[in-house]
Amino acid sequence: MTTHYIDITLLPDPEFSHAHLLGALMVKLHRALVQLKTSDIGVSFPQHVDMPLSRRTLGAVLRLHSASGALDELMALEWLKGMRDHVQVSALGVAPADAKHRLVQRRQFKTNVDRLRRRRMARKGETAEQAAAAIPDTVERKPNLPFVQVRSSSTGQPFYLFVEHGSLQVEGVDGGFNSYGLSLGSSIPWF
User: Fold this and answer.
1) What is the mean pLDDT of residues 140-160?
2) Residue 132 covered by a domain
3) Residues 175, 184: contact at Cβ < 8 Å?
4) ∠ at Cα 81 (75, 83), nearest 5°?
5) I want to staple 7 with a disulfide (CB 3.0 to 4.6 A). Which of 17, 90, 137, 170 is the partner?
6) How many CA atoms, within 13 angstroms, populate the side-chain half-sphere of residue 92?
């Protein structure tokens, strides 16, 4: 149950943008959650504001949600090593009992038609013309969600981790979180 939280606030840095630091923080969190083999810890971005695409951001605060024991176990790891000069970590707090809830989850998109066609050509041995006929330009979607750029620990390739904030709900829902702390059905308190 997500009864407690810890806020990790990115500090201003003349050399690194908040986007770069948030990506590094998410990669470190991902590694720690994989190491713990847990699906009990969720994240939210309390400074997220739904704005026009050009100004959409996750903000400078990463909030960790879980039971106090799970958060204590996470923070006992040295997962923030190398980030301590770039973040401020709050004390463990209790989520307000009357807080609304929402799902904060990953969304994946088929975003690049050329990449999809190259994959199809390699997979099926097709020519560029055959792949173009099978995958029209209209399948490409332009996501309008905020994202964090991270690097895959398995392939080393960078990718965008798009984050969708669901609508506010009165009641919380249990269902677990993925290895980035994003919802697999569980809601987090939104405050």
Assistant:
1) 79
2) no
3) yes
4) 100
5) 90
6) 14
Round to whole Å and give the CA distance between 45 and 119: 34
Catalytic residue set: 30
Query: Which domain covers residue 21, as residue numbers?
Result: 4-109+146-190
- Could you give the CA distance from residue 100 to residue 167 in angstroms, rounded to a whole number? 10
Confidence of residue 15 (pLDDT cuts 50, 70, 90): very high
Q: Residue 155 belongs to a domain with what CATH number?
A: 3.30.70.2540
Q: What is the mean pLDDT of the chain?
A: 88
Amino acid at 26: M
130 within domain boundaries: no
* Tokens coding 112: 């690049």
Number of helices and strands in the chain (H, E): 4, 10
How far is residue 53's CA from residue 143's CA, in Å, rounded to a whole number? 9
- Check residue 45 and give its pLDDT: 94
CA 167 centroid distance within chain? 17
- The helix/strand/coil state of 191 is coil
Return all residues near 86 (Cβ < 8 A) that are at least 6 apart. Answer: 10, 11, 13, 16, 21, 24
Q: Are 71 and 103 in contact (CB under 8 A)?
A: no
Q: Examine residue 13 and state whether it is found in any structural domain, yes or no.
A: yes
